[in-house]
Specification:
Layout lengths: L1 H15 L10 E9 L2 E2 L2 E8 L7 E6 L2 E6 L2 E8 L19 H5 L3 E4 L3 E2 L2 E2 L1
Parallel strand pairs: 1-8, 1-9
Antiparallel strand pairs: 1-2, 1-5, 3-4, 3-6, 6-7
């Protein structure tokens, strides 16, 4: 009787822990973002989907650093930051701090686990 109660408790604990629930596991991605060697003070970073069944992720860049969670897989990295010290255009849009060659051809990364990915633009 004690053996079957112990076995039931172990099986129940394994089920509650989420083993085999089929949900994608998240990986913590962090790093630095710089432009011309200077940290990006404020901006955003997005990890766009490149594979079916993948989920996007993203977060804020503060003082040149970011940290977010994404699922494993290939990602296109989109970084945005504007120069709020400059004059906005006629539409109220501030100029981008991100070099044009990067915005036209975003980098791609392969996420295989939690890691550091620095972006020096």
């Amino acid at each position: 009787m004690r053996f079957s109660i112990a076995l039931t408790v172990i099986c129940l604990a394994t089920t509650i822990a989420g083993c085999g629930d089929g949900s994608p596991r998240n990986c913590t991605i962090s790093g630095e973002v710089t432009v011309d060697g200077q940290p990006v003070e404020s901006g955003s970073i997005q990890f766009k989907i490149l594979e079916d069944g993948d989920l996007p992720g993203g977060g804020m860049i503060l003082d040149g650093k970011y940290q977010t969670e994404v699922t494993p897989g290939k990602k296109k990295v989109i970084i945005s930051a504007v120069d709020t010290t400059a004059e906005p255009d006629a539409y109220g849009t501030y100029p981008s701090l991100i070099p044009e060659e990067y915005t036209k051809n975003p980098q791609e990364i392969e996420v295989t686990g939690s890691a550091t990915h620095d972006f020096h633009l």
